[in-house]
Design brief:
Elements: E1 4-8, E2 11-20, H1 27-34, E3 44-54, E4 69-77, E5 88-92, E6 95-103, H2 109-120, E7 126-128, E8 133-137, E9 149-158
Antiparallel strand pairs: 1-6, 2-4, 2-5, 3-4, 3-8, 6-9, 7-9, 8-9
Length: 162
């Protein structure tokens, strides 16, 4: 599984967020709060939904499953003129991303992430950049479908030590 590389322009998001960790995964709680209200998000820039992670600096240098990070369930918007109550805004700055296609049910996503971080990244000419990570769940995303597709966007920068 080789990524494609994309330089992404700044993106604006509106959604729900919470603090979680890999050991105490609150993804279900987050999406359960967002999905009933997703249609309240005004100025949507499409129909795709975004699962976003904002990790603290050096999160991957000293990985610990108990370290907390910010997780988002969000929609991309064209502006912040219409933000529903109890939702937040996020600006993702421009930057380079390695984009992987995950095919299969959401439950097999950890296998794809394991490949990215344990195999591909250490053997690539890139390191993680400190910008939001996200998965785009578009038209082909179906949570439990073996043929479901979602794009996994990992922020990267050239590894200056290579």
């Amino acid at each position: 599984m080789e990524p494609k590389f994309e330089t992404l322009a700044e993106k604006l998001f509106v959604g729900k967020r919470l603090t979680t960790s890999f050991s105490e995964d609150k993804t279900y709680e987050l999406w359960s709060a967002f999905m009933p209200r997703r249609n309240e998000v005004g100025n949507a820039a499409g129909t795709s939904l975004y699962s976003i992670e904002v990790y603290p600096p050096l999160f991957f240098d000293h990985f610990n499953a108990n370290t907390t990070f910010e997780k988002w369930a969000a929609a991309e918007v064209t502006n912040f003129n219409s933000v529903p109550g109890e939702m937040d805004t996020l600006v993702s700055p421009q930057g380079l991303y390695a984009v992987f296609l995950h095919v299969g049910p959401a439950s097999t996503g950890p296998i794809t992430y394991q490949y990215i971080f344990a195999n591909w990244l250490p053997n690539s000419a890139y390191t993680i950049d400190n910008r939001p990570h996200f998965a785009i769940m578009g038209e082909k995303y179906k949570h439990d479908d073996p043929a479901a597709e979602e794009e996994i966007w990992i922020p990267v920068k050239p590894n200056i030590n290579m």
